[in-house]
Design brief:
The protein is 40% helix and 21% strand. The protein is of the alpha/beta class and 482 residues long. The chain is globular. The protein folds into two domains: 278 residues, 3-Layer(aba) Sandwich (Aldehyde Dehydrogenase, Chain A, domain 1), CATH 3.40.605.10; 188 residues, Aldehyde Dehydrogenase, Chain A, domain 2 (3-Layer(aba) Sandwich).
Length: 482
């Protein structure tokens, strides 16, 4: 047992209408370090009274916050970003302890969260309306963007600071208030954002954060007439359930759901650069990324060399505790993902796939699993149908560009898709032909705060990031003044 586990991790609390409190529903679970199985803290869930207080606070605070100038709202976000940077090392350690990712990745996530706050602080100043040429002399026809109202937000455990930041920042910049439920498995990272905002002067009630049983909280919040919008990042199954609840109101949703990203690797790709990029892209956050590259479709001429080089590079990777500076990939975040990796590998092998790298646990404690490359994976393997959400790469071959596009687009998911080629013509063809919300050419970087991010098909609807992310929290009021 490591001292940093015992003395660095705080007891999770709810933040309700400007007050820190222990959840009134009692113990609902624990936070566990995925690297060593040490229990870090006990989670006390929000009671019905806690949730009603959070809703009442969001309703009461909305009038004052929405009428606060965009400059003043932005100043709070900028100050919070500064505090996040000052506290980056301590927040990163908390994130690594509760989620498992390497400290380098955790520090980067804190920086990106701060950048998100700053970007929307500026973008809030550009929430411009417009005046249209009038039909009648002396009249005015105007469109005024206005905040929707209190928002219910739900985020998962894989990016426990950045994903909350991508919802909090645009909502607050737009003038909305929010009640957020982050993942119970990784509460400290999200609560660190709230603490920074509170210390930056955010008024009570503008942002509340609650923990507890997900279904109970989501049903109560979404059904409340106070909530005017829902935003969710997570699995497709849960997203469908929340969309049904929202449709009964009806209330608008932004749903960023699962992915199963294809990667087209053409014969003319730069092999060394492609392999290096694929290692980094696949093992980032131990593969627990909705945009993670998964189905590697490799053109026949480069296939054997790619598989050999990719397998060798994955085998050389050091997997270990994220607090160890020498670790290049941390553990999976929970036991569920560890069991899923084992089951998916066993199913694929039984269907005819070949293990080219990894394929098994690599420690007798914690949730460590070797980065795994499966070659010659048949289309009926379960891993080809469901999102692995782990360090599992599936390789098969294709002959022509047309065949590659067809196979890449066969998935019901459409969040991200990628291609590696040195041909400008091929790059343009696949960029237009791939059915996904984000396309990476010779890159897996398809999510930047200044650009829209969202999926097609079973990957959800609505956009985060960019000016579109701000617009998602506003309605366009039309005014005709005769």
């Amino acid at each position: 047992m490591k001292s940093k586990d015992l003395f660095s991790y705080p007891a999770p609390r709810q933040y309700v209408d400007g007050q820190w409190r222990v959840g009134g529903a009692g113990a609902v679970g624990v936070v566990t370090n995925p690297a060593n199985d040490v229990v870090l803290a006990e989670i006390h869930g929000a009671s019905r009274q806690d949730l009603n207080d959070a809703l009442a606070g969001a309703e009461r605070a909305f009038g004052g916050w929405s009428s606060t100038s965009a400059h003043q709202r932005g100043a709070v976000l900028r100050r919070a970003a500064q505090l996040l940077r000052e506290r980056a090392d301590s927040i990163a350690l908390l994130m690594t302890l509760e989620q498992g990712k390497t400290l380098a990745e955790s520090r980067m996530e804190v920086e990106l969260s701060a950048e998100t706050f700053e970007w929307y602080a500026a973008e809030g100043l550009r929430a411009n309306g417009r005046v249209m040429p009038s039909r009648v002399r002396g009249a005015r026809q105007m469109v005024l963007p206005q905040p929707l109202g209190p928002v219910a937000a739900f985020t998962p455990w894989n990016f426990p600071a950045l994903l909350p930041a991508r919802k909090i920042a645009p909502a607050l910049a737009a003038g909305c208030t929010m009640v957020m439920k982050p993942a119970e498995e990784t509460p400290a990272s999200a609560l660190a954002l709230v603490e920074a905002l509170a210390d930056a002067g955010l008024p009570a009630g503008v942002l509340s954060m609650v923990l507890g049983v997900p279904r109970d909280i989501s049903e109560l919040l979404i059904a409340s007439p106070i909530i005017r919008k829902i935003t969710f990042t997570g699995s497709t199954g849960v997203g469908r359930a929340l969309a049904r609840l929202a449709a009964e109101a009806p209330k608008p949703c932004t749903l960023e759901l699962g992915g199963h990203a294809p990667v087209l690797i053409f014969d003319d790709a730069d092999l060394d650069r492609t392999v290096a990029t694929c290692v980094q892209g696949k093992t980032r956050n131990t593969g627990q990324v909705c945009t993670s590259p998964t189905r590697f479709l490799v053109q026949r001429g480069i296939h054997d060399r790619f598989v050999a080089a990719y397998a060798q590079a994955l085998d050389a990777l050091k997997v270990g505790d994220g607090t160890d500076a020498s670790s290049q990939m941390g553990p999976l975040a929970n036991r569920r993902r560890l069991s899923a990796m084992e089951e998916l590998v066993a199913d694929a092998v039984s269907a005819g796939a070949r293990v080219a790298a990894g394929g098994q646990r690599c420690a007798d404690h914690g949730n460590f699993f070797r980065p795994t490359l499966l070659a010659d994976v048949p289309s009926n393997a379960r891993a080809m149908q469901v999102e692995p959400f782990g360090p599992l790469a599936l390789v098969s071959t294709f002959e022509t560009l047309e065949e590659g596009l067809t196979r890449a687009n066969q998935s019901p998911y459409g969040l991200a898709a990628y291609a590696f080629t040195r041909s400008a013509e091929t790059a343009l063809t696949v960029a237009e032909g791939l059915h996904a919300g984000g396309i990476g050419i010779n890159s897996f970087a398809v999510s930047h705060i200044e650009a829209p991010f969202g999926g097609l098909k079973d990957s959800g609807y609505g956009l985060e990031g960019g000016s579109e992310g701000l617009e998602a929290y506003m309605h366009q009021k039309y005014v005709h003044h005769a």
